[in-house]
């Protein structure tokens, strides 16, 4: 396993300061940044190490920006009031976590026991968060269904709020 780069071993507040400086400088000026980090934080980090770290950070930020923009465009192009897209994503994450747990159990004899405990703990936390998200999404979907059912029931009692065609269109848009 390759050793960690120098910047990753720095205290979080120093890494955050370096991140902010890299972003503010547009991921350039590494020689000046090298001197600035030494002067302000008393840490010697080479410009090459700063460049490698900055390149990785820039790739991460670009990926986040691209996925955020893609999600925004998808949400605009295909509204999802019942939040079925979130349910699909949560299901994919849960499946991936399950596969990872199976692989971890299969590699039981090869892994360091302390490392396995850490990995299992992290996996359990991730599964708990995914389950909470799934429960919240299902609760929202049930609320949407209940509102639609109430509208339909009111329709049948002569309390005309929406015409039948509009109500049908809303239901089809939500449920496909």
> How does the overall form come out from the CA principal axes?
elongated
Distance between the termini: 49 Å
Q: What percent of residues adopt helix (DSSP H or I)? A: over 70%
Query: What's the number of extended β-strand segments?
Result: 0
Largest sheet composition: none
How many separate helices?
A: 6
The count of domains is 2
Q: What quaternary form is this?
A: single chain
Written as H for each helix and E for each strand, in order along the chain, the element string is: HHHHHH
Give the secondary structure arrangement, pairings included.
Elements: H1 12-24, H2 30-41, H3 47-77, H4 84-106, H5 113-156, H6 164-175
Helix pairs in contact: 1-2, 2-3, 4-5, 5-6
Structure description:
With 176 residues, this protein is mainly alpha-helical. It has two domains: 1-78; 80-176. It is 77% helix and 0% strand. α1 packs antiparallel against α2, α2 packs across α3 (47-77) and α4 (84-106) packs antiparallel against α5. The two termini are 49 Å apart. 7% of the residues are buried.
Outline of this structure?
This protein has about 180 residues and is an all-alpha fold.
Features of the shown structure:
176 residues, mainly alpha, 2 domains, 6 helices, elongated
